[in-house]
Amino acid sequence: MWGNTVRIMTTTPADARASLVKAIALLALIVASDLWATHHFGLGLVQLAAIGGVVAVVSGALPFLTAVLTTAEKGGIAKILRIAGRVLLWTPALVAFYVAGAIVALTVSTVRIIGETERPIGRVELTFLGRSGFPRVDSSGREGLVRFTTLTSPFGSPVRLEVAGFAPATFTLYPLGGLTVRLGRDLSVLPTVLFRPGTRALQALVNGGVFRVWMVTPGDSALLAETTAVVVRSSFVMGEPRVIPGAMLEEWRLELTCEEPVIRDQALLAWRRPVPLRTRALRPGPGDRVRAEVWASDTTLVAQTEVVLSGETQIDVPVLNVASAQGGCG
Fold this sequence. Notes:
Elements: H1 13-41, H2 45-68, H3 71-88, H4 91-107, E1 108-114, E2 124-128, E3 136-138, E4 145-151, E5 157-163, E6 169-173, E7 179-182, E8 192-197, H5 199-206, E9 210-217, E10 220-226, E11 236-238, H6 246-255, H7 261-271, E12 275-276, E13 289-295, E14 301-308, E15 314-319
Parallel strand pairs: 1-7, 8-15, 11-12
Antiparallel strand pairs: 1-4, 2-3, 2-5, 5-6, 8-11, 9-10, 9-13, 13-14
Helix pairs in contact: 1-4
């Protein structure tokens, strides 16, 4: 009427298709983010149930809100929702969401240590090889699970994992899948090693002798444990004490068949009551070579044995008297 024209905004089929494609892309990003978070952090059914409860509460409150709000307030809320939807489906914003998600997915990962049972896991130490800094330590493995959240590389990062009671091992941590280590399968249980000094060695220990255990490596040896200042007449156990099976006791009796009854009974009693050893370094595992020695108070070597540890959970190691090679019982 006054010469002004009214411009009517219409949505073309091409615009509708573009918005639909963007909405599908946003939904795919949300689903992928949820799967990533569920895999790494366990955000699963409990969180979904909580969200479902919130949705139910909101749905129940909608009729009440509809009755209370005025037409203008309803229009304002609808306008805000439309603006939020346009922002989320704005192409630059959608691209930024994807870039940010890709950066997080390729640089953030988790290491999960799962126990054989729901018993608490002991001390866990995670070290990045070739990277400066202190190792990550966790001692709160309740319900059989320990989780580390850390930065990594898209090409993988080598890590060393040490768990109390298990042999340490090296793994590669990748970002998307993370690293899941199951104790007893991916990390072998450290064996319980029972060292049994021979009859002469037992007597030397009573008279102030010393028992020592060494880790033997090519060209070097490291002292693991010794009984200096401790006078005992017993065997020695390295690792978690275990029940001695009857078959092992029978083998011990066969070893002592040529000993006097009194000496035989004293030796059996000493071997059945091992003294725990406190190691100075990491406990040896399957494939490691150890050497056990008994030295008399006059620094004479009384007994010695060197063995490569097997993969059994309980290893019986007789520490043979030096003179036993010439005959007689050990």
